[in-house]
Amino acid sequence: MGRGDGNAENINKRGANVVALERIAFNVVSIPVGTESNNGHPAVFPLRLAEVHILSWSNPGDTVFDPFLGSGTTGKMAILHGRNFIGIERVEKYFDIACKRIEEAQRIMETEPPIF
User: Fold this and answer.
1) Distance between CA atoms of residues 115 and 4, nearest Å
2) Where do the domains of the chain lie, and which CATH numbers do they carry?
3) What span, in angstroms and rounded, lies between the C-alpha atoms of 114 and 16?
4) DSSP string, 62-86
């Protein structure tokens, strides 16, 4: 995918890559389901599914937004991959679970920052 001026690089007006350099190069991704704890939430969202999309559609330092935070899987993976994160959850019980998981990811990043 290139720009309208014929340049093959996929960059935005600020000169940054639009698509992450770490992106997943396949259209179909096979992810086993039911292999993770439900963390107290009835709809299990696989960590790998969040990770694939975060790596494919954002760069380190970008902000990932999840309007349906749930137990915080997307937030956790965003933090672990060097992204900022904003999430919204209306159910207090799930919000509390998400906060704990995201705070845990932040602690991991403080002690073991990523190499990139």
Assistant:
1) 34
2) 23-116 (3.40.50.150)
3) 20
4) -EEEESS-TTSHHHHHHHHTT-EEE
CA distance 6 to 91: 48
Give the Cα separation of 80 and 112 in Å (integer): 10
What would you measure as the largest C-alpha separation in the chain, in angstroms?
51
Confidence (pTM): 0.71
Measured distance between the N- and C-terminal CA atoms of the chain, rounded to whole angstroms: 25
Give the whole-angstrom CA distance, residue 35 versus residue 48.
Answer: 11
- Band (pLDDT 50/70/90 cuts) for residue 56 is confident
Structure tokens belonging to residue 107: 């602690």
**CA-based radius of gyration for the chain:** 16
The Cα–Cα gap between 34 and 17 comes to: 34
